[in-house]
Amino acid sequence: MSGQLGTTENPLRVAIIGSGPAGFYAAGQLLSTGDPVVTVDLFDRLMTPWGLVRFGVAPDHPKIKSVTRVFDRTAQMPGFNFHGNVEVGSDISHEQLAAAYHAVLYAVGTPHDRKLGIEGEELPGSVSATEFVAWYNGHPDYAAMDFDLSCRRAVVVGNGNVALDVARMLALSVDELSVTDIADHAIELLRASEVQEIVVLGRRGPVQAAFTNPELRELADLELADVVVDPADVELDPASAAALADADMTTTKNVETLTAYAALTPSGKPRRVVLRFLASPIAIEGDQKVEAIVVERNELVEGPDGSLRAQPTGQRERIETGIVLRSIGYVGTPLPGVPFDDRRMTVLNQDGRVLDSATREPLPGVYAAGWIKRGPSGVIGTNKKCAQETTALLLEDFAAGRLPQPSISAEQLLTELRTRVDVVDYSGWEAIDAHERALGEPTGRPRVKLVSREEQLHRATVRA
Ligand SMILES: Cc1cc2nc3c(=O)[nH]c(=O)nc-3n(C[C@H](O)[C@H](O)[C@H](O)COP(=O)(O)OP(=O)(O)OC[C@H]3O[C@@H](n4cnc5c(N)ncnc54)[C@H](O)[C@@H]3O)c2cc1C
Ligand SMILES: NC(=O)c1ccc[n+]([C@@H]2O[C@H](COP(=O)([O-])OP(=O)(O)OC[C@H]3O[C@@H](n4cnc5c(N)ncnc54)[C@H](OP(=O)(O)O)[C@@H]3O)[C@@H](O)[C@H]2O)c1
Hints:
Bound molecules: flavin-adenine dinucleotide, NADP nicotinamide-adenine-dinucleotide phosphate
Distance between the termini: 33 Å
Number of helices: 16
CATH class of the largest domain: Alpha Beta
CATH superfamily of the largest domain: FAD/NAD(P)-binding domain
Structural class: alpha/beta
Number of strands: 20
Radius of gyration: 24 Å
């Protein structure tokens, strides 16, 4: 290394961990600064980039995935390098990265499910949306999972957009699914599904639902399913009615949509999506596997912070079902060597600067962005602003001389890594991508996903 830091001869070297929206937005922002000159090494534990854009976003929402064109442009920028199939924490440690880069930025997402903490949650047939979504989207770690859809009713717990995704995937026809990039194994299982009724349970009321408007409205377009809402569920308690008067447009429109659903007479389609409110699961019952979920009716009471909270009324109901899909949010997990906030279940940070667990002072050169920084909420675009806040602080720390000087070169680290790990670079991913798209072309699908790591590695390495 020679010359002043942040120049073409001696660029600022940043490692970004995680190639989802937060990682890619951060990479694009750093690479386009011009001064200082930055190089970005973007690591992902998978051989395929894009995080939840590939493994979360519903297959029947292809337009949302077009954001990957922005990420592709970032990948073509000078100074960008992708290192897929490298898991930080096992293939390479935080300490190794910190020794080789001026800054390390974590954008690893929050990959696990929040628990309900009720009896029967671990019974076969009680599954997390996290698993189900990753399975139907062809995530290699979940491709071998199996779900028993031989029951008549499925229950989805939660009132967020993920719950709606899961409900929709169970309600869509095979014709609707087979033009998407859903994993082939999922089409096969869903083809044989006997589920006729999908009950979505919200613990609070329509005013508190976390759905966004298009996602709620599109339920009306399902080819095979009617949407059912009990008119009693859209009769608001006085506190919710008052909250609605001050509510944002999203909530107002959601309540309008739900009220319109409640006025519908089912048209006799073979499936039903039933949206229920003010019902909390209190137990999942079954002998060897899920047979029913017990819910308790809630009423809403004002909490100390002024928000309306669910309070049980003691009125219980047993709903027979063979599968419970828990969709109550995601949580982050600690990475070895990176301070973790056990309360928020994120990397311990302030505005994206990672903090020392003991002193609560910024750890020089360590940053976070995306869901692992602020928790599992927000759409893809939210991560752009979030990454911007972090990269601005990183550049501010650079300008103030607060970044540590690496003790080894990144080339040394990467050379050693390649002796142990089949690192897949961006052209390796492009070979996987081209192959998947070619597989989809004859049947008009955007792609047919390769779901095994072996197959992906083969495609990434056989390219000309
Ligand atoms: C089911 C679902 C559907 C969604 N649908 C939409 C939608 O339709 N529209 C919308 O706008 N938003 C949607 N969102 C929200 C959106 O996906 C998130 O806001 C966004 O993906 C969060 O970005 P991220 O980069 O923080 O995390 P992620 O997208 O989760 O990316 C994290 C990346 O880090 C990698 N990683 C994790 N651990 C390691 C490690 N130890 N070493 C190396 N790499 C690692 C992962 O493999 C992954 O690639 C959806 C979310 C979910 C859960
Ligand atoms: N198409 C899209 O744009 C799209 C698709 C999918 C996801 N996303 C985004 O991704 C983010 C994550 O979505 P998400 O659906 O996982 O999370 P979310 O929006 O936070 O919703 C979580 C839901 O779980 C409920 N919940 C939490 N704990 C519960 C419990 N113990 N019992 C019963 N219910 C419980 C919450 O109810 P309370 O409100 O009562 O806590 C809430 O309804 C969101 O920002 C979402 O908008 C977007």
